[in-house]
C-alpha cells in the first residue's frame, strides 16, 4: 500500500522568503510523485511530477521538488514566496504512470505574509 | 488548458434525499474520470474510477449502492449520493483523464462540491 504524509497542515512565510513544504511517502514499488496546488474556489492544478530520471524536478510558478529515495521524501520548494502563492498544496503518490489512482497527502495550506 | 466543470459547487439537502453531482470535461474527451472525497483537514480519498460506457470500479469500503456513478458520455460523469445522511457530508472532487493527446499523462480536477446533509 502507498501513503503520503505532509508535515504541517499550515505553513506561513513572509513574502520573498523561502517556501518549503514537506512530503514523505511510503511505497512498496518505485513511486511516481506529484505536487498539486488548489487556489480558492478552483480545482487542483498539477505543479510538477517525478516519474523517472532527474531527481530534481522543476514545475510551474518557480516551484521545484527533489526526489530523495533514501529519505522517502519529495519536498516542494520555492526560493522566494509571492503573495499569489497562497493556496492549498497536495502531495500525491502513484504506482502507475499516467497519474491514475493517486494517493494524496492531507494538504498544506500556505499563507504568505506581506 | 483543459477545464473540468463540477456542479453544483455546494448543496444542502435533507437526510434521506438523493443528491446528484455532475463532472464535465468542457474541452476534451475523458474516457476515465475519478471521484474523490475529502473530510476537513484530511486527504482526498479515491472513491471510484469511472470509465465511459462501463461500470465504475469502487475502492474498498465504498458502498456502490450508496454512491451511484454513471459515465454515459465521454464528457460527463455523475455521482449520486442516495438516501443521504449527515455522515455523508463532505467535499467531493472529480478529476478527468484526457483521451489521447499531449495531456494524456495529466489529470484535470473539478473545483469540488461541498455537500451538507441536515
Notable features of this structure?
heterodimer; A: 114 residues; mainly beta; five-stranded antiparallel beta sheet; 11 strands; globular; B: 118 residues; seven-stranded mixed beta sheet; four-stranded antiparallel beta sheet
Question: Could you explain the architecture of this structure?
Answer:
- The complex is a heterodimer of chains A (114) and B (118).
- With 114 residues, chain A is mainly β.
- Chain A contains no helices and 11 strands.
- In chain A, the strands form 2 sheets. In chain A, strands 2, 4, 5, 9, 10 and 11 form a 6-stranded mixed β-sheet that branches.
- By secondary structure, chain B is an all-beta fold.
- Chain B has no helices and 11 strands.
- Chain B has strands spanning 4-7, 10-13, 19-25, 30-38, 44-51, 57-58, 67-73, 76-81, 90-98, 108-109, 113-117.
- In chain B, the strands form 2 sheets. In chain B, strands 2, 4, 5, 6, 9, 10 and 11 form a 7-stranded mixed β-sheet that branches. A 4-stranded antiparallel β-sheet of chain B has the order 1-3-8-7, with no helix packed on it.
- The mean pLDDT of chain B is 90.
- Chains A and B meet through strand 5 and strand 10 of A and strand 4, strand 5, strand 9 and strand 10 of B.
Amino acid at each position: 500500500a502507498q501513503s503520503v504524509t505532509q508535515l504541517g497542515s499550515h505553513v506561513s512565510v513572509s513574502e520573498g522568503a523561502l517556501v518549503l513544504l514537506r512530503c514523505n511517502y511510503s511505497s512498496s514499488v518505485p513511486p511516481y510523485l506529484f505536487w498539486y496546488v488548489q487556489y480558492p474556489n478552483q480545482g487542483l492544478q498539477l505543479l510538477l511530477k517525478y516519474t523517472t530520471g532527474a531527481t530534481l524536478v522543476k514545475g510551474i510558478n518557480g516551484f521545484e521538488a527533489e526526489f530523495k529515495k533514501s529519505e522517502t521524501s519529495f519536498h516542494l520548494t520555492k526560493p522566494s514566496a509571492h503573495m499569489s502563492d497562497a493556496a492549498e498544496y497536495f502531495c500525491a503518490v502513484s504506482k502507475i504512470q499516467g497519474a491514475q489512482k493517486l494517493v494524496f497527502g492531507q494538504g498544506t495550506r500556505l499563507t504568505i505574509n506581506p | 488548458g483543459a477545464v473540468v466543470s463540477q456542479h453544483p459547487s455546494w448543496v444542502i439537502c435533507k437526510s434521506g434525499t438523493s443528491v446528484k453531482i455532475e463532472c464535465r470535461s468542457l474541452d476534451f474527451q475523458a474516457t476515465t474520470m475519478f471521484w474523490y472525497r475529502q473530510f476537513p483537514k484530511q486527504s482526498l480519498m479515491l472513491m471510484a474510477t469511472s470509465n465511459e460506457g462501463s461500470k465504475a470500479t469502487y475502492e474498498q469500503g465504498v458502498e456502490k449502492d450508496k454512491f451511484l456513478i454513471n459515465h454515459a458520455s465521454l464528457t460527463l460523469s455523475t455521482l449520486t449520493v442516495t438516501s443521504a445522511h449527515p455522515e455523508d457530508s463532505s467535499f467531493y472532487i472529480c478529476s478527468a483523464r484526457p483521451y489521447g493527446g499531449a495531456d494524456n499523462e495529466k489529470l484535470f480536477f473539478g473545483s469540488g462540491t461541498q455537500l451538507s446533509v441536515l
